[in-house]
């Protein structure tokens, strides 16, 4: 497995462990408080599980398997590295800002963008860019090339 695919898979496993630890924390909160934690914290937990674990695993496996299945080399190894850092910066920014952006920027009367909401939007943009780069890189790898 090439190093970029391996890094995605390892990052995904880290997110999986973080998500399970978060699930344990949620269970402890419910046991102590008798109710679910505030929604913004649940949103961060779900984001780690869905985008952190599943996207990193999917990107890693896609970068490893799809070139082999198509019989063509990955279009751009360097782009895979950019995808890795862009996605992980986006995930970290989203997970860390979401509880604060939702508590102070969305659920309260809107008074203008808060710093946390700006971080949340920027992090979401990074995740979108990573998905677009992955899609482009894989599509250029697996689609038949025109006759040169």
Structural write-up:
The chain has helices at residues 3-33, 39-70, 77-106, 115-142. The longest helix has 32 residues, at 39-70. α1 (3-33) runs parallel beside α3, α2 (39-70) runs parallel beside α4 and α3 (77-106) packs antiparallel against α4 (115-142). 82% of the residues lie in helices and 0% in strands. The protein has 148 residues and is mainly α. It has one domain (3-142).
List the main descriptive attributes of the protein structure presented here.
single chain, 4 helices, 148 residues, elongated, mainly alpha
Q: Please bin the fraction of helical residues.
A: over 70%
Mean pLDDT: 88
- Radius of gyration equals 18 Å
Low-confidence stretches: none
How many β strands by DSSP?
Answer: 0
Describe the secondary structure blueprint for this structure:
Blueprint: H1 3-33, H2 39-70, H3 77-106, H4 115-142
Helix pairs in contact: 1-2, 1-3, 2-3, 2-4, 3-4
